[in-house]
């Protein structure tokens, strides 16, 4: 039983005593309060006991009345039923009413736990779906929603710049694959030092909407260091006639001990400003979707035209 503070409350205890023809026989039901150690004590004066008799006195009982229940009234109450030769105790526990008032709005741990599990599941599902389908969806959105770049006076969608060691990747895989996706492509072999070839590439970049630069250890004379890569990327940034996309065949050696220039820029911070896509295998569909996302919107209605095997001397 859990009443609120201020509630009126009645406890009732009743027993059948019958008729006993003995001069000192009596029937009685009396309420007591029980302490934690089992001791029965008298009730405070503000609590009232009202005795009742029924069936010509054969059934007797007692009401215990709480006019205004208080916190200190919580506890265990015992009705002691006495009749000739018999004494029986019946207990009623009234829980501490303070339970209702210490925290009327308990923290919903269960609901929050369930909500967190649902949110975590949704986030994990979104991450998995984004990794699997995100590049494709973004590429499709770009192709169908972005403005066509046809009236800029340029003849090529893509210029692929590559070193001699990456000829197969450039002309054998990348160029024909992009052509099947309706891109007009051209490719140019870099024969000079890649750290000083921006001037030669610029003349071809003026007629192209995008430049794909293939970076590999062979193209950098096997000097695949943060300092060398930073120098190469900064060098290509001098080409400002079109957007550049870098395809790297190996992960960049980014570490916590990077060298920074006078402006505090490092390879890691530079990478966050440019488009870098790592080449894995030609059958990696997401690689092509990520690459196409950086290229002009696809125009399948135009005739595909390619010009390869050019050289930058």
Give your account of this protein's structure.
With 313 residues, the chain is of the alpha/beta class. The chain is 28% helix and 28% strand. It has seven helices and 13 strands. The strands form three sheets. The protein has a six-stranded parallel sheet, with helices on both faces. A four-stranded antiparallel sheet has the order 3-2-6-7, with no helix packed on it. Helix 5 (226-236) links the parallel strand 10 (208-215) and strand 11 (243-248). It is rod-shaped. The model is unreliable at 98-102 and 301-307 (pLDDT under 50).
CATH C-level of the largest domain? Alpha Beta
The assigned structural class equals alpha/beta
N- and C-termini, Cα separation: 96 Å
Largest sheet, described in full? 6 strands, parallel
- Average predicted local confidence, pLDDT: 82
Q: The CATH topology of the largest domain, please? A: Rossmann fold
The name of the CATH superfamily of the largest domain reads Toll/interleukin-1 receptor homology (TIR) domain
- Residues in helices, as a percent range: 25-40%
Q: What would you say the CATH architecture of the largest domain is?
A: 3-Layer(aba) Sandwich
Count of discrete domains: 2
Multimeric organization:
single chain
Strand line-up across the major sheet:
12-11-10-8-9-13
Q: Order of SSEs, N→C? A: EEEEEEEHHEHEHEHEHEHE
- How much of the residues is beta strand, in percent? 25-35%
């Amino acid at each position: 039983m859990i009443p609120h503070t201020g509630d009126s409350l009645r406890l009732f205890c009743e027993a059948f005593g019958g008729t006993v023809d003995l001069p000192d026989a009596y029937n009685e039901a009396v309420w007591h309060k029980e302490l934690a150690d089992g001791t029965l004590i008298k009730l405070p004066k503000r609590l009232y006991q009202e005795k009742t008799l029924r069936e010509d006195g054969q059934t007797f009982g007692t009401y215990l009345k709480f006019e205004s229940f208080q916190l200190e009234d919580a506890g265990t109450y015992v009705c002691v039923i006495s009749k000739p030769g018999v004494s029986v105790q019946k207990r009623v526990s009234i829980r501490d009413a303070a339970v209702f008032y210490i925290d009327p709005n308990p923290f919903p741990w269960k609901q929050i736990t369930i909500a967190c599990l649902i949110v975590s599941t949704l986030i994990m599902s979104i991450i998995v779906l984004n990794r699997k389908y995100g590049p494709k969806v973004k590429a499709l959105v770009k192709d169908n929603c972005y403005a066509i770049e046809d009236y800029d006076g340029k003849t090529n969608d893509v210029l692929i710049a590559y070193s001699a060691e990456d000829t197969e990747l450039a002309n054998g895989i990348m160029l024909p694959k992009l052509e099947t996706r309706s891109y007009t492509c051209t490719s140019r072999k870099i024969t000079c030092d890649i750290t000083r070839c921006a001037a030669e590439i610029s003349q071809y970049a003026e007629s192209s909407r995008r430049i794909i630069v293939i970076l590999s250890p062979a193209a950098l004379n096997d000097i695949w260091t943060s300092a060398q890569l930073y120098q190469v990327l900064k060098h290509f940034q001098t080409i400002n006639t079109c957007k550049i996309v870098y395809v790297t065949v190996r992960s960049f050696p980014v570490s916590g001990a990077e060298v920074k220039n006078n402006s505090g820029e490092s390879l890691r911070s530079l990478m966050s400003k440019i488009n870098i896509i790592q080449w894995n295998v030609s059958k990696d569909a997401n690689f092509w979707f990520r690459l196409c996302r950086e290229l002009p919107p696809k125009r399948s209605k135009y005739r595909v035209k390619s010009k390869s095997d050019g050289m930058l001397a």
